[in-house]
Automatic annotation (TrEMBL), chains A, B:
InterPro entries: Aldolase_TIM (IPR013785), DHO_dehydrogenase (IPR050074), DHOD_1B (IPR033888), Dihydroorotate_DH_1 (IPR024920), Dihydroorotate_DH_1_2 (IPR012135), Dihydroorotate_DH_cat (IPR005720), Dihydroorotate_DH_CS (IPR001295), Dihydroorotate_DH_I (IPR049622). PANTHER family: DIHYDROOROTATE DEHYDROGENASE (FUMARATE) (PTHR48109:SF1), DIHYDROOROTATE DEHYDROGENASE (QUINONE), MITOCHONDRIAL-RELATED (PTHR48109). Pathway: Pyrimidine metabolism; UMP biosynthesis via de novo pathway; orotate from (S)-dihydroorotate (NAD(+) route): step 1/1. It comes from the Bacteria. Pfam families: DHO_dh (PF01180). Substrate binds at residues 45, 69-73, 126, 191-192. It is found in: Cytoplasm. GO terms for cellular component: cytoplasm. This is Dihydroorotate dehydrogenase. The lineage of its organism: Bacteria, Bacillati, Bacillota, Clostridia, Christensenellales. It comes from Guopingia tenuis. Residues 4-285 form the Dihydroorotate dehydrogenase catalytic domain. Belongs to the dihydroorotate dehydrogenase family. Type 1 subfamily. It catalyses: (S)-dihydroorotate + NAD(+) = orotate + NADH + H(+); (S)-dihydroorotate + A = orotate + AH2. Its EC number is 1.3.-.-.
From TrEMBL, chains C, D:
Responsible for channeling the electrons from the oxidation of dihydroorotate from the FMN redox center in the PyrD type B subunit to the ultimate electron acceptor NAD(+). This is Dihydroorotate dehydrogenase B (NAD(+)), electron transfer subunit. One of its GO terms (molecular function) is metal ion binding. Keywords: 2Fe-2S, Electron transport, FAD, Flavoprotein, Iron, Iron-sulfur, Metal-binding, Pyrimidine biosynthesis, Transport. Pathway: Pyrimidine metabolism; UMP biosynthesis via de novo pathway; orotate from (S)-dihydroorotate (NAD(+) route): step 1/1. Belongs to the PyrK family. The keyword Ion transport does not apply. Residues 3-104 form the FAD-binding FR-type domain. The keyword Transport applies.
Amino acid sequence: MADLRVNIAGVNFKNPVIAASGTFAFGEEYAAFLDVSALGGIALKALTPEIRPGNPPIRIAETPSGILNSVGLQNPGVDAFISGILPRIRRFDTVKIANVAGRTEEDYYTVIEKLNDTEIDMFELNVSCPNVKQGGVTFGTDPNSMAAIVAGAKARAKKPLIVKLTPNVTNIALMAKTAEDAGADAVSLVNTFTAMAINAKTRRPVLANVTGGLSGPAIKPIALRMVHEVYRAVSIPIIGMGGIMTGEDAAEFLLAGASALMVGTATVAEPDAMIRILGELNKFLDENSAATARELTGALEY
Amino acid sequence: MADLRVNIAGVNFKNPVIAASGTFAFGEEYAAFLDVSALGGIALKALTPEIRPGNPPIRIAETPSGILNSVGLQNPGVDAFISGILPRIRRFDTVKIANVAGRTEEDYYTVIEKLNDTEIDMFELNVSCPNVKQGGVTFGTDPNSMAAIVAGAKARAKKPLIVKLTPNVTNIALMAKTAEDAGADAVSLVNTFTAMAINAKTRRPVLANVTGGLSGPAIKPIALRMVHEVYRAVSIPIIGMGGIMTGEDAAEFLLAGASALMVGTATVAEPDAMIRILGELNKFLDENSAATARELTGALEY
Amino acid sequence: MIKKHDICRVASLEPLAKDTYALTLKVNGDMLKYFRPGQFAHIRLPHAGEHLLRRPISVNTIDREAETMRFAFLIQGEGTRRLSQCRPGDELDILAPLGQGFRVKESHQKIWLVGGGIGIAPLLSLRDTVPGREYTAFLGYKSREYAYERKEFEGFCKAVHVTSDDGSIGEKNFVTEALRRELEKEKPDVILSCGPLPMFRSLKRVWEEDGRDVETQVSMEQHMGCGTGGCYTCTCMVAGAMKRVCMDGPVFDIREVKL
Amino acid sequence: MIKKHDICRVASLEPLAKDTYALTLKVNGDMLKYFRPGQFAHIRLPHAGEHLLRRPISVNTIDREAETMRFAFLIQGEGTRRLSQCRPGDELDILAPLGQGFRVKESHQKIWLVGGGIGIAPLLSLRDTVPGREYTAFLGYKSREYAYERKEFEGFCKAVHVTSDDGSIGEKNFVTEALRRELEKEKPDVILSCGPLPMFRSLKRVWEEDGRDVETQVSMEQHMGCGTGGCYTCTCMVAGAMKRVCMDGPVFDIREVKL
Ligand SMILES: Cc1cc2nc3c(=O)[nH]c(=O)nc-3n(C[C@H](O)[C@H](O)[C@H](O)COP(=O)(O)OP(=O)(O)OC[C@H]3O[C@@H](n4cnc5c(N)ncnc54)[C@H](O)[C@@H]3O)c2cc1C
Ligand SMILES: Cc1cc2nc3c(=O)[nH]c(=O)nc-3n(C[C@H](O)[C@H](O)[C@H](O)COP(=O)(O)OP(=O)(O)OC[C@H]3O[C@@H](n4cnc5c(N)ncnc54)[C@H](O)[C@@H]3O)c2cc1C
Ligand SMILES: Cc1cc2nc3c(=O)[nH]c(=O)nc-3n(C[C@H](O)[C@H](O)[C@H](O)COP(=O)(O)O)c2cc1C
Ligand SMILES: Cc1cc2nc3c(=O)[nH]c(=O)nc-3n(C[C@H](O)[C@H](O)[C@H](O)COP(=O)(O)O)c2cc1C
Ligand code: FES
Ligand code: FES
């Protein structure tokens, strides 16, 4: 039984497995399938200042070893979250991360300020959602916008700030470094790759939104490379993700440089996947004589 | 029996299925498995001015629905190609495309000038190989370098010039437009995504080169999106590729905007895959009442 | 915790009609205990490999004693094709039961079932779960070759109205037109319906014109990810809000759901 | 065109030793016609799904009359695990025969076979393809549990020297040390060898010290893509040039190949 505890930007996690934003709703739904308090943390569904209906359906497509989604940040708005949902998820004894989104810089700041005095433990700045036409992803692809919004968020946030990076860039190490220099306490990567599926018979895109975000094992090799590159570029902790389906996948991300992990698509495929992954990671550590999960971080030999 | 003929930059292809560079060597090896002359064309293994040994092995790894390679442009050099190999592949009645690579701009020009008076039909400027440390990929990620090398190559080339784009960029439409404006007669995309595989037990990268290029069905949704984006940005023809394994995959790339297709990983998995894909594409066109392959190009409805 | 995620053994797989199969699984007691008609299972494909998504299939019949659940499905693509190749003894990873199902109240004594094509399948589960009501069924098939389970409906319904697109079985008519004819004569306490979207659109017209006071529940389809409410990919518009078909549905009130 | 790519039926699958299996396939005549010892097949996994790459496995024995090819393999990972679950009647997509194999000349009358672990398997194909020579075998196993096919070698070899790492079968020694001892007594016309890289490194030392004049051929392993010479991923350094194991090899001269 290895020691799975990790610490990210001063926050203690009982283990490094965190639900990825947008794939675990606000956690409640999963109480029927697993002990939510057994998870290291949960990144909640993205929150914006106002209620958002998201994109029209069809919103999901299956691709080889991957899935495409175009949910488009559907959420009840930060106020409804605070009054209606937060009191119900208080009972989960796990780190709660608010995924913060919006169209404008002000949107992000509004969400942060409203959540500052709640029991949310951390913020995850979602500057990388490919499913919204304006805002979102542009912050994540341009270093100047990135610097501005991270600095602005950091100045307002009373909790540690994670910046979630998009993989749709030429140089992700540069974007990570920009976030670090602007005050980010940690980075998480990767969000989804902008992609599309076509139904050749109908000659139409499968998704109503035309494009969506690709996640799952298909992208794991690119995500691993990016975590590895970012690890060499920054000194803040990294939360790695992209196609983690097994404990061994989790170990690979730790070795590449991650201090903790997020799991998204695996949960979509199998509601209790994170519990299985935790068990497998534990077993992997034992079998490979690692006493802690922490010692794997960046321990890749090459 | 649909009409499969296509024309790219004035060159006639009997059908749109072309062997992707680096996966079909110089074609000879495949005479044991298929009628090479039945293919629309073959993009030959990358050529550099001098002989190159490539990267050390292990050079290949399997990933979910993908493969990673780090061959690193191993080739006999353009002179040995012209004297030793070209005379032997003359017999194939198919469009022969030379994939041109190098470290410096001069390297590319040398290869082009040496091949100008041979029976090579087209050039494919490989500014996108992720497996060489210098050169190569930098030309493909920076618009200024791209413009310079494409203009230089175009000024020297006596055959139509295809520019092969890397997907490892923030804005592939911009890179395609840059190539078009600098004189490219066509673009081909995508080359492989920089990626890595880790053996968690040994704590080492699987590839000796640490990173390699990801290809195969895993990347198809991203490749399709990029072809679609480039189609809206340029008016030169597009050769689409990335995970084409079936005739229906081929049709999807045509619909997204490609005029012809390249097939790489499918051949690695199954030597005669291109013949199967051709048959399936033909059948698909017949069953979906398309009289020609050409009419699918860009015919996506949305 | 109720065991809603389990590996279940295939008890049998039989052809029902053209491209239509019945799959019977041996399931655990928890899956049957709280089962309500109209709920579905989310089935991982055999040898799933590169296929990450499960396939949602409504429960067709249940047998609490034998501890089995049966599904009827139509081959649409790779997923349903693979399911049609299952053999007894194979194992399937399933999530069940999911969704809210039909909301049948005490006051619903006279129940009319309106099904189109493979949408007929979930309606049969009423027989096993809500016995002792007066049922009438309206079954619309494409043609005789695709007709399945008519006999089963005849076994528990007072009347069964069969229509087909080409008249090769029952009357040549839209199933919703057969419904209209009967609605003009009498009204049930509730209409429970499942079928393709175009059928629901006709149903809505018939309902507006001849059945406005009759509570009508429709079971919607949507492409799904998790099936468990986590990913918000399976939405449809209900009373102005984006609802999850998997968790808030699949059954919605025809007055509220945008068709 | 010779039919080198075909769907072949599994005739049998038997355990040979711990984690070691023999897979026999019914193959087409073309695959056997030009077969040479040391060649391999490139096998697509059953239900390959997300696994795009084939697995290279040397031919262990052939039977021209029954039109079968047999492979012996050791479970290493997912691919070989799946092969070990094949059942008679299953179909496998294979490419065979590939590579150059051992180059046995008329002058090679006295042939010594040196195999380590699963590398012993391809050496048995000499029995079926180059009969009438004087064979001596040196077989190195990890331990008794992993020992397989010793009897078969005894059936056609003048002498069989068995070693194991722990002495649980044969003498406790490196197989290359057993070879050294015999080389000090007499020299064969050729040594044909297959085994892991560390064994080849010892073999090279033994060869340098005691067998410099003896032609020695080693069968190399490398991670492969196509198996057919197209992708250049399977290289090793031979006489200063990067050669393809799949097409130029897998057998190379010990003087030339970089170990
Ligand atoms: C709540 C619910 C209950 C259902 N009950 C039944 C049933 O009892 N019997 C039956 O035959 N079918 C039923 N369906 C439809 C069934 O889920 C689809 O036919 C099936 O998913 C198609 O998968 P495929 O791989 O064969 O087809 P493909 O077209 O290859 O599927 C590709 C992808 O699209 C999705 N998809 C395609 N069509 C549909 C659809 N109509 N609804 C949802 N997802 C779709 C698939 O799940 C898959 O992810 C139900 C759908 C829902 C939402
Ligand atoms: C010419 C040749 C002949 C061979 N003959 C035999 C034989 O007769 N019997 C036998 O048991 N094994 C043989 N091998 C080794 C066998 O190919 C590997 O053990 C097998 O590919 C491992 O696959 P896996 O999925 O079980 O293991 P994994 O480790 O999960 O494989 C992952 C990937 O690495 C590749 N790989 C891993 N190990 C090797 C290796 N040693 N050589 C080549 N590729 C590897 C696999 O092909 C796969 O692509 C031979 C290899 C070569 C090159
Ligand atoms: C259905 C779905 C919805 C998502 N919604 C969000 C979101 O709201 N905010 C966000 O930052 N990331 C979102 N993501 C991205 C995931 O959090 C994660 O970054 C990505 O899926 C890669 O991890 P995976 O391969 O484990 O899924 C979403 C992903 C999926 C599949
Ligand atoms: C083994 C291998 C070698 C490759 N070598 C080259 C090369 O020399 N030049 C080049 O432009 N692309 C090279 N590529 C990239 C392919 O031509 C193609 O762009 C890519 O693999 C995507 O297509 P696919 O998914 O069909 O393989 C190589 C790909 C593979 C798999
Ligand atoms: S399918 Fe995930 S919320 Fe319905
Ligand atoms: S495996 Fe492709 S060249 Fe050898």
